[in-house]
Amino acid sequence: MRILIVNVNTTESMTHAIGMQARKVAAPGTEIVALTPRFGAESVEGNFESYLAAVGVMDAVMSYRQPFDAVIQAGYGEHGREGLQELLDVPVVDITEAAATAAMFLGHKYSVVTTLDRAVPLIEDRLKLAGLDERCASVRASGMAVLELETQPERAVEAIVRQAGLAVSEDHAEVICLGCGGMAELDAKIRELTGVPVVDGVAAAVTIAESLVRLGLSTSKVRTYAPPEPSA
Amino acid sequence: MRILIVNVNTTESMTHAIGMQARKVAAPGTEIVALTPRFGAESVEGNFESYLAAVGVMDAVMSYRQPFDAVIQAGYGEHGREGLQELLDVPVVDITEAAATAAMFLGHKYSVVTTLDRAVPLIEDRLKLAGLDERCASVRASGMAVLELETQPERAVEAIVRQAGLAVSEDHAEVICLGCGGMAELDAKIRELTGVPVVDGVAAAVTIAESLVRLGLSTSKVRTYAPPEPSA
Amino acid sequence: MRILIVNVNTTESMTHAIGMQARKVAAPGTEIVALTPRFGAESVEGNFESYLAAVGVMDAVMSYRQPFDAVIQAGYGEHGREGLQELLDVPVVDITEAAATAAMFLGHKYSVVTTLDRAVPLIEDRLKLAGLDERCASVRASGMAVLELETQPERAVEAIVRQAGLAVSEDHAEVICLGCGGMAELDAKIRELTGVPVVDGVAAAVTIAESLVRLGLSTSKVRTYAPPEPSA
Amino acid sequence: MRILIVNVNTTESMTHAIGMQARKVAAPGTEIVALTPRFGAESVEGNFESYLAAVGVMDAVMSYRQPFDAVIQAGYGEHGREGLQELLDVPVVDITEAAATAAMFLGHKYSVVTTLDRAVPLIEDRLKLAGLDERCASVRASGMAVLELETQPERAVEAIVRQAGLAVSEDHAEVICLGCGGMAELDAKIRELTGVPVVDGVAAAVTIAESLVRLGLSTSKVRTYAPPEPSA
Amino acid sequence: MRILIVNVNTTESMTHAIGMQARKVAAPGTEIVALTPRFGAESVEGNFESYLAAVGVMDAVMSYRQPFDAVIQAGYGEHGREGLQELLDVPVVDITEAAATAAMFLGHKYSVVTTLDRAVPLIEDRLKLAGLDERCASVRASGMAVLELETQPERAVEAIVRQAGLAVSEDHAEVICLGCGGMAELDAKIRELTGVPVVDGVAAAVTIAESLVRLGLSTSKVRTYAPPEPSA
Amino acid sequence: MRILIVNVNTTESMTHAIGMQARKVAAPGTEIVALTPRFGAESVEGNFESYLAAVGVMDAVMSYRQPFDAVIQAGYGEHGREGLQELLDVPVVDITEAAATAAMFLGHKYSVVTTLDRAVPLIEDRLKLAGLDERCASVRASGMAVLELETQPERAVEAIVRQAGLAVSEDHAEVICLGCGGMAELDAKIRELTGVPVVDGVAAAVTIAESLVRLGLSTSKVRTYAPPEPSA
């Protein structure tokens, strides 16, 4: 089985990190192909960049010339998943939704800890549209920009742990979702420090994509995600 | 005052029609400039095209070289408004939200009548995110594609009136919103035939944009719609 | 065009102030007529007074002997708007809803800052019934009574700014609605001090009423706001 | 214990019928005093009349010169209950809420069957504000005006039973609330014909009012229902 | 009239206390029979114990050999009420719902103060399923275990009063529900100290059960609570 | 990896069928152990039986003497999952939630088709508590009892297909969840006949349980699902 995992920004080192994280949890026999969009922002921190990323991700997937069995969109709170679902016959999994879904099997309420404060409303909106917000205790920002997660990993862990701790003590979260593709390698550390399960969206998405493929399930084509008309 | 009104598809005749409709209701002294995206779909009937339109609309607005006071995004249920809000200092009005807002001043519940069935979930999602769905009785499809509104206006009126009638009798709507930029000239006819107020999104958006400008109000820049960082 | 704007209390100086504020934003050619109820409370701070005001406002409007094109009910969180909609053929705009509607075009979430704590649940209830509460971050009280806004304007500004600041920092509001007819002249000051858009309900209501009139739209008469039966 | 039960319209024969219905279920030792407002509509079928009734009911209660232990507002879907709660130290029970509350102890979902279609949104709004709408399957209109319940009781029963039947079969209601003070004597007949429990709001309100008095509970005075200020 | 009130744990002294509390408010002519389950936990503090209690309570009621007119399940936030409703022809009242219902007649918002923090989500879930959560300001834990209410009554009162005070000042509750069967005797003290109405679930449930019996109302048998099939 | 899958009724042939269905989708190296409760109902069709099943399932799992890595509760709309989560350190997956979760990755809305009408409210309640109801278009009953699925498979397929078709055409479902453990083998047939993805809860639950185990994730123990106290 081949799964495409598409970064939402154009930073190759993040694509690499996301691919590595995905491979760690992939089943034997699953090939992970990590793609970088040909255009877009170095890091996606707001709506303009997120809309550009939506098109960049669709372009990257449609330009890929080999067969594949599922696609993962590896951006937290980003636009675009519905477009991929229209264009493809294979399952599409967004890491924001994958993480929330996994978290809801683990505790009564979950929180998301993300990068900058301005990303919070985007994530809240995606969870709301996905109907996964009812058990979301909070979306909290660590104040660290996406690229700082790579350049200042220690400060990032500290800031994320602080917000995760507040999510548990103040917001009654019982599970933490790491709200950024770039946080992929921090989960073990944070789990240890907070004492609650920590869900990484990339890892969750890989197992969900594999599961849907194994079950022979793919996107319904009867209404919302019917293929675009040829005239378009 | 100059207001840009941006079509979401690349069909010039629709841009023209939208501009005309806007000028009909604009106040004296308001200049309406109707823009067509440089790329995108001839008509936007689904998510892929809608995401492309989001970027096409942003491109069209950012490429416009004269000063302007407000922007209207003239697509029903389309993506992209939040991106414009980040990029601009002037107010941005989406016609889906403008129509719903006006309708809510006129009756207890409103319905939207749109083109194809596949557009329904997109409109429902936009209204939900905008927090304007609570008093939405239904979103109904006439089964007419966007471009058929121009080529078969009589059948279009008939199909829309039928759904509007069902919205009133079955769903208890008291106001009808015309859920497509291309329906702009049909409102008087439909109002006469259904007996309830009919709101055209383009017209509503023009008066709302004018109002915000006159009140000296524009998009808040403190969080969600802060300008993109230069590094992006 | 003539717009009636009706104060909800019997204090003439407040009617005068409301009329002045309305005239500031009215379009050329719009005549603003400010009315005071013949009975009711000097200031409306609770439900009993608010119900009395509902009837007082209807009485004031029905007693007005000239033609008019729209009515604005200038009380924040007050009862009665639905009654006016039944009795009249012209549009009726409540300032609570007008302010919320304008705010929702400007930011992801908005807050209302009102007078006394006891007014908070009334405003929350009106926003809920109007289906405009989903994006309301909070309704906060400044602790200043309606009449103190006139007698102690400096303390009022200070108290309102403090609550507006907390609404932004604690509740993540991106826009502030001034939740009292009597706050009408304070908006510029508060806007400057908080850095976010500040919406005055009276001003917003004037432009909305004008817009509905220009669009030829009025209250739907098919169900909820059908005229009272003659037998009644 | 003395309980005032206040009709919302000025039709004495309905006040009499409401009083009789209340006495049937009152505990030994409970005195029921049925009051008619001094002003208002012969029957309350819309918002204007309902707001007038709100003030008429408050006037009737405040004009009553004997001591009393609780007040019941005997109108379905009417305004005004919050005003009474401010003015009084004794418990106030609205029959709309009393019926819904009782119904929720009896089945998973309940429906309300009321008089005219135009009363439906008023009842829906009251249930929503009271937070009792979540388990409301539907509010259905029999098409019979309030006064026709007295003049054409057979047709009324037939029309109500038909809607009650549809509420059970189509809307999955398991309990029916009779949505009008004037339906008070029909409940046994309708229960027999539909096979589900039928709740009369007047009867439910009497037992709830008695219960609150016996438990020594009355309206909280800390915020929403604090007494009006003397200056008002 | 005979009402069975069933403790959810196996501690006889708590059954005794619950019975005494019920008798204090029961009407003349109402016989209260307090039952203890034959199996289960000494105190119910979580889901496992609560599910066991659900079956224990059903067993206790079905083993009772005398006729009875209503059943009260005297556990706060516990499972099982729906099972009793299937098995019985008489009304079943849960104290969690009884308290919330009474509180909603007394103030705009109510809070529940319960024992341990882990009971909070159970109570929230029960209120949500019952559709009684909309006006619930908060569910707060005193940190006192069920059995400590008996062994350390002074500390219990202090801890409960502290949380009740915070519910009023921070969460805007206007009424407090005592969220545990074992708190039954503390209500007067707490009412005095907090200044808001305090509802004891046992007391509220007794008057509601009596009311339903007097009104001749019982559980609807058409769908959710139809009796189990004989084959089962 | 060993996964326990627990039937909720005592019918061994259904346990066998559930085990077979689970093994079909299990990954190589996953051992499926299917358990039957020692007590309970032959088929679970209502709340009484469901509460009994909750305890029966907990008993079956706690009596199992070998190590295991995850538990699946194979009943649709049944009580008890939260109890297992308290008692165990391994992940617990309910098939109702597993099916809904998978469906939400495949289409905009999903419907559940279950056995008897009386099961509908139980399923609705479980989805609501799980926060998975927002995108649920409907829960529909085929009218076939659990045991009839085995004895009359052809009629069952026909009845389920009819309801699935209505869910798609009337309720706008884009995915169907088979709402009963006993429907496990019918999914391919129904998928072919309806043209939309069909999710079997058992199959979905197996892949989700495997995923959680592979990701090293288990139930959070900080609040709701903390282990029962020893004193209990």
Automatic annotation (TrEMBL), chains A, B, C, D, E, F:
This protein's source sits in the domain of life called Bacteria
Enzyme Commission code(s) on record = 5.1.99.5
InterPro entries given in the database record: Asp/Glu/hydantoin_racemase (IPR015942), Hydantoin_racemase-like (IPR052186), Iso_Racemase_Enz_sf (IPR053714)
Which chemical reaction does it catalyze? D-5-benzylhydantoin = L-5-benzylhydantoin; a D-5-monosubstituted hydantoin = a L-5-monosubstituted hydantoin; D-5-isobutylhydantoin = L-5-isobutylhydantoin
GO: which molecular function terms? amino-acid racemase activity; hydantoin racemase activity
Record's family?
A: Belongs to the HyuE racemase family.
Protein name per UniProt: Hydantoin racemase
Q: What organism is this sequence from?
A: Comamonas testosteroni
